[in-house]
Amino acid sequence: MKKICIFTYAYMHPHQTMVNFHIENLFSGSAVVCAGKETTFQPVKRTVFDRSSVSRTLWDKVLEPVTGLSNKLKGLPQKSLIGSERAQIVDFLRRESVDAVLCEFGCIGAEVVSSIGDIGIPMFTYYRGYDGTMRIRSSRQQRLTARAFEKTAGLFFVSKFLQDNLASYGLVHPNSHVIPSGVNTDKFQPLEKKKRKFVAIGRLVDKKRPDITVRSFCEEAKSYPDATLSLLGGGPWQERCQEIIRDMGMEDRVEILGEQSHENVLKHLQEAEFFLQHSVTSPEGDAEGAPTSIQEALACGCVVLSTRHAGIPELVSEGETGFLVDELDETGFRALIRDALSGKIDAEKIGCASREFAVRNLDNRLLIKRLESVLSEA
Predict the structure, then answer these.
(1) What is the pLDDT of residue 252?
(2) CB atoms < 10 A from the CB of 66, how many?
(3) Rg (CA), the chain
(4) Which partner for 299 in 104, 256, 261, 358 could form a disulfide, CB atoms 3.0-4.6 Å apart?
(5) For residue 369, what are the contacts with CB-CB under 8 A and spacing of at least 6?
């Protein structure tokens, strides 16, 4: 394998750590990138085709509505990779002597592979969460994905849950592989733990139900004045969570810190005994893949208290590296927190097991070798 082109939404997005890791490290950093836009966050420099910079011709202005109408009649998403943009992307791939394409996220893969999957370059798609749950519920997206699969060389999923979810719609591919995003276990490793320190990391959105996390902790921590909870992340549930904290008089022990730098996230995980995440399927159907925050927590020797949701049971062995309850089981979740606070859970023993599991199974440098092996076979 000489060179791969990574298709993604942005070059580079500060929160898409695994996509950035691929851009930086796949095949010794030889990747080129085709992105919907460029950002100012560019810790490494790669050759980039910026799709937003494509100039439209008069022919494009005629072709776009015609293609949109045709797609609509076929029951497909109306946006397609066509005209000048398609021609310039194909020229970019050939000019850069690209040997394979990796589309990060299923929505991108469906669009790209269905449009240019016949140009003689093997094309792969990586499913990560929203793309394999909420987005795939659309019948139009299912049709486009099915058409793309006919030209796809292979698929990657961060969890078997996502692979099975696509299969439930009849979307299967013989060359499919489950490879979690992973984490740098040299960087994410435990330091001295602070007793009864809890942490929750991620956007405060429907599929994480942070209100359950906050309310459950506040109820159970009343009798433990040294217990603290830090929430790292912001979002639409932030105001409701603040209300719960105020109403329960826990402002001095529960903090919502908003979006934080990677360094601060790392520091909190290294010091925390317990990691909380009450993930659920949102009313719209959005679900997790295999949450990176849980993988990072395991590497940092945290005891994970979470839910039997999506790919989380693939990461957390109940009673060994953490404990899980069913989605929306607030009573059960409170019981886990109660056991953690009372010392019924051996945080040191389970934290060590979490760390060992992460080193063996979630180190991103080992996982990227598996990815490279599949890509090279093409």
Answers:
(1) 96
(2) 10
(3) 22
(4) 358
(5) none
pLDDT at residue 77 above 80? no
**What's the CA gap between 70 and 39, in Å, rounded?**
33
| Three-class DSSP category at 274 | strand
**Token code pair at residue 84:** 């000048």
Please report where in the chains the tokens 């016949």 appear, as a residue.
118
Does residue 156 surpass a pLDDT of 70?
A: yes
Neighbours of 228 (CB within 10 A): 20
Beta strands in the chain (DSSP E): 4-11, 32-38, 48-50, 100-104, 123-127, 154-157, 176-178, 194-201, 228-232, 254-258, 272-276, 303-307, 322-325
Residue 310 tokens read as: 């999506």
- Tell me, yes or no, if the pTM score tops 0.90: yes
67 band by pLDDT with thresholds 50, 70 and 90: confident
- In order of their start, the domains of the chain are 4-182+364-377 (3.40.50.2000), 194-361 (3.40.50.2000)
